[in-house]
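Exercise 3.2. Students should predict the tertiary structure of the chain below and write it as structure tokens, then compare their answer with the key that follows.

Predict this chain's 3D structure.
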Amino acid sequence: MKQKFDIIVSRCIPLPLENVDTDQIIPARFLKAVTRDEKFFGDNLFRDWRYNADGTPKEDFVLNDPRYSGCILVAGKNFGSGSSREHAAWAIAGYGFRVVISSFFADIHKNNELNNFVLPVVVSEEFLAELFASIQADPTMEVKVDVPAQTVTNMATGRSEHFELNAYKKYCLMNALDDIDDLLEQKDKIEKFEQSR
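Answer key:
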């Protein structure tokens, strides 16, 4: 969903697992879907970890744990590895996550998140470990993600880190523009250029 990004303050959902691949994020059987409905993909985020074979929720999975909520997913190193399926980003966005924090993202998945209005925030392994510890100590703790300043702050400790963000993608996120919207904003310039040729 297109929403403007500015400063996001939220509780977090911790997923302290490394090498979470796109098949775990959204299993391959859902790639045959003929819908792009956000709710459909969000409902099936981490499907095999989240639900039993009979469709009942697994009580021990973090998304089913009522202690945790928020629009920030804190994930282990190497998040989004595996296939390049954009459906994984659709599922993350469809669930309602606006930010995913990890110490490393697979490149294609990172770009897919950005293209689907989910902000991937890369932090140091030390900062990530501190976030997991803070969430474990107090599931109600919050994280502040300041997109204009490109900083992420652990509100429990006050510690902040700067994160990298491509200037073009930052502009798009802060103005709720996808690539086509951005092109349409440049329509007059494009037409003027074409007329000069």
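Discussion points: Residues 22 and 83 are 6 Å apart (CA to CA). The chain has a mean pLDDT of 94.
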